[in-house]
Amino acid sequence: MADTDSGSEQPVPRKRADARRNERALLDAAAAAFVTSGVDVPVRDIAARAGVGVGTIYRHFPTRADLIVAVYRHQIEACAEAGPALLADSDTPHAALAQWIDLFVDFLATKHGLAAALQSDDAAFQTLHTYFLDRLVPVCDQILHAAVAADEIRPDLDAYGLLRGVGNLCIGAGTDPRYDARRLVDLLVAGLRVR
Amino acid sequence: MADTDSGSEQPVPRKRADARRNERALLDAAAAAFVTSGVDVPVRDIAARAGVGVGTIYRHFPTRADLIVAVYRHQIEACAEAGPALLADSDTPHAALAQWIDLFVDFLATKHGLAAALQSDDAAFQTLHTYFLDRLVPVCDQILHAAVAADEIRPDLDAYGLLRGVGNLCIGAGTDPRYDARRLVDLLVAGLRVR
DNA sequence: TGGCTACCGGAACGGCGTTCCGCTTAATCA
DNA sequence: TGATTAAGCGGAACGCCGTTCCGGTAGCCA
C-alpha cells in the first residue's frame, strides 16, 4: 500500500509545541471527563478541564467521535488483537468467542454512554461507528467462522449483527444494578450454539 | 381503596371544550410526528402540527414521556393483556413466551427512537420507563414463571432483565437493514432454554 | 531579533427544552 | 343576553449546548 508522500520528504513537518501540549491535555481531560460524566459530557466541560478554549477542541478533534476514538484507541486495538490470540490458545472456537466477547463487554460496559453513542444515528458519531466496525468486525468474523466450521454454532448470524447486538445489550450497563448486561450477552451467545 | 373524593360530588368537573380539542389535536399531531421524525421530534414541531403554542403542550403533557405514554397507551395495554391469553392458548409456556416477546418486539421496533428513549436515564423519560415496567414486568413474570415451572427455561433471569435486554436489542431496529433485531431476540430467548 | 503564520480563546449564532405572563375566550349566572 | 371570572392559550424569553469564526498571541525560523 503506497503512502501519500513519496519516501524521503516529511509532508507533516511536526506540529508546534503548544499544539502538541494542548492535544495531550485534551486527551487527558476528555478521558477524565468521560469517566465522571460519560462520553456525552458537554464540550465546554472538557475544554475547561484542559484549560483551553472550545475552538481548540474542534481544531484537534473535529467531531466528538474523533475525540472518543482517540481516547479509547489503545483499548480497542488491544481487544482487536486479542482475537486471533484467543482463537489460537483456546480449546474450542466457541470458547474463544465467549472469551473475546467478554473482553468486548468488559470494555464497553465500563464506558458510561459509549454503547449508546455507538448505536446513535447522529452524524457526529459516524466516525465512531465506522472505526469500531472496521476494527472489530473482521476479528469477530474470523472467530465466528472458525466456530461455524467446528459445528459449534449456528451459521445464521454474521459478525456485524452479533457485535451490534452485544453493543446494544451493553447500553445502560453499570447504571442500574438490576440490569446485568453480561448475563444477557452470555445467554445470547448460548443461543448461538447448535443443539 | 378509597377515592380522593367522597362519593357523590365530581372532583374533576370536566375540562373546557378548547382544552379537550387541543389535547386531541396534540395526540394526533404527536402520533404523526413520531412516525415521521421519531419520538425525539422537537416539541415545536408537534405544536406546529397541532396548531397550538408550545405552552399548550406542557400544560397537557408536562414531560415528553407523558405524551409518549398517552400516544401508545392503547398498544401497550393490548400487549399486556395478550400475555395471559397467549399463556392459556399456547401448547407450552415457552411458546407463549416467544409469541408474547414477538408482540413486544413488533411494537417497539416500529416506533422510531422509542426503544432508545426507554433506556435513557434522562429524567424526562422516567415516567415512560416506569409505565412500561409497571405494565409489562408482571405479565412477563407470569409467563416466565410458568416456563420455569414446566422446566423449559433456565430460572436465572428475571422479567425485568429480560424486558430490558429485549428493549435494548430493539434499539436501531428499522433504521439499518443489516441489523435484524428480531433474530437477535430469538437467539436470546433460545439461550434461555434448558439444554 | 524580527517577521511570518500556525494556533489560540472565547464571543457569537442557531437549535432546543422549558418557563412565564399578559391576553383570549369558554363557561356560568343573573 | 350580557357581564363576570378564571381556565386556558400563545409565544416571547431564558439557559444550555454544539458549532463557527475571527482578532489577537506566541512559537518557530531566518
TrEMBL record, chains A, B:
<dbReference type="InterPro" id="IPR036271">
    <property type="entry name" value="Tet_transcr_reg_TetR-rel_C_sf"/>
</dbReference>
<dbReference type="InterPro" id="IPR009057">
    <property type="entry name" value="Homeodomain-like_sf"/>
</dbReference>
<dbReference type="InterPro" id="IPR049445">
    <property type="entry name" value="TetR_SbtR-like_C"/>
</dbReference>
<feature type="region of interest" description="Disordered">
    <location>
        <begin position="1"/>
        <end position="20"/>
    </location>
</feature>
<dbReference type="Pfam" id="PF00440">
    <property type="entry name" value="TetR_N"/>
</dbReference>
<keyword id="KW-0804">Transcription</keyword>
<dbReference type="InterPro" id="IPR001647">
    <property type="entry name" value="HTH_TetR"/>
</dbReference>
<feature type="DNA-binding region" description="H-T-H motif">
    <location>
        <begin position="42"/>
        <end position="61"/>
    </location>
</feature>
<feature type="domain" description="HTH tetR-type">
    <location>
        <begin position="20"/>
        <end position="79"/>
    </location>
</feature>
<protein>
    <submittedName>
        <fullName>TetR family transcriptional regulator</fullName>
    </submittedName>
</protein>
<dbReference type="Pfam" id="PF21597">
    <property type="entry name" value="TetR_C_43"/>
</dbReference>
<keyword id="KW-0805">Transcription regulation</keyword>
<keyword id="KW-0238">DNA-binding</keyword>
<dbReference type="InterPro" id="IPR050109">
    <property type="entry name" value="HTH-type_TetR-like_transc_reg"/>
</dbReference>
